[in-house]
Please model this.
Amino acid sequence: MEQVSLGTVLWYTLGAYLTLSIFSFLYKDNPFYRLAEHLIVGLSAGYWIAVLYHQSLVALWLEPLTNGFKAVITPGGSLAEESGRLLLSIIPGIGGLIMFTRFFPKISWLSRWPIAFYLAISAGVALPLYLQSFTVEQMRASMIPLGGSLSVVLKDLIVIIGTICGLAYFYFSMQHKGIVGGMARFGVWILMIGFGSTFGYTVMSRISLLIGRFRFLIDWVNQIAGYLK
Amino acid sequence: MNGEQKPHDGFWLRLINIDRRWIYLVIGIVVFVPILFPIGLPVQVTKEVQNVYDRIDSLKAGSIIMIPMEYDPATMAELQPMAYAILRHCFSKGIKVISTALQIEGVTIIKNDLELIAAEYGRKYGEDYVFLGYKPYPGIVILNMGEDFRKPFPRDYYGNLLDSLPMMAGVYNYSSCAMIVNINATSGVDYWINYAHTRYGAPLAIGVTAVMATDYYAFLSSNQIFGLIGGLKGAAEYEKLINHPGLATRAMDVQSIAHSVIVIFILVGNIAYFSSRKKKG
Model:
């Protein structure tokens, strides 16, 4: 086993302490758990603020703005071109500042303008693609020409019937009686099978995370052993 | 917790009111013990994982694939083995890798993972792999990368200009990559389907946490993705395909035993429920 430094052991020990603190909630709520919980909330918030400041505010606005000003006042370049670039940095900044008018009730209506602009851009970019990816493509994949071997035909039939019956369950403009009722009931069974497989996968996911934490605790013991050796 | 239980209550009634901490304890034991004493249960490879392997394996040395990785400390237990396996496959075949980390909490982990596996195969930064790092607003970043990687990332994670990296010469966008294999623990995988595949037509495979896997099988059926690696099981399958058993393969024993115990719990719980209901009349 390679030599382990004291620093490594201390970091591992801190991680192990926090892991065990979180696990202690399984017994009952306690101050160790609460400390660990508050620590992660606080750390995450601080981390996010720092990252967003540097990656968003500085990199996407302050830097282009400063560079734009420098370019405008530096002789030699095309003033019109540089001024245009500068405006592209100023306008989003003004939009961002207007968002803060929400704190002043008399002019809070102004904040709706940048929100409307943002929503329009997002919807314009996302809607056609989401419709294509999540609706049109899925519908196309459900329109299957039946053919091939018996097993393929059976599989495709399950997809077609399952989709139609699943949708029938969510059709609320007719009473779920007769044929529609039967289809809806079958649709519920299909949904239940889907939920069952999701549950199985969820169990696997959670057990995987537990394995990860147990491995970390085993590593921690190994690190201490390596340091003491 | 079951202090209201009386001694004359039936066995089944007492069983369904059992203190849940006993269940936690049993699960803890059945997870912990097989980690220490692995059995080596077999792993079967599924078609959706085989597809990813085959597509990567068919590439020639020098081809470029993009492996955006979005996982953090909370999900690394599931996705890190998957990332290791795919990176090992690429680097062992001389395939070049471009990577991003669009989930902020995982940037350093992903950087370390890339460096670790690249070092295993003696791959050099800038020649065999490039790490672009993180930028906020993943949807916009993915859209921009479809035009030119240099738009959202004029510089890489380490601050190098992209044009100064030999590997990036002539590499502009997704069309320069043979495929995208997105390893993702967030709903950000929708952005990759939506923007990288639907908008730019990039061939896409995904590796997701097990809890997300069922949501994305529909995209596999519709051929919007050509492969799907689901959770630790998917990672174990990939490890088997590259003949490099690792963390995921060893974890499969634990998964199998823990799942069996949970199935027993569900069966016993249901029997107890129906028996106690019958008794109540």
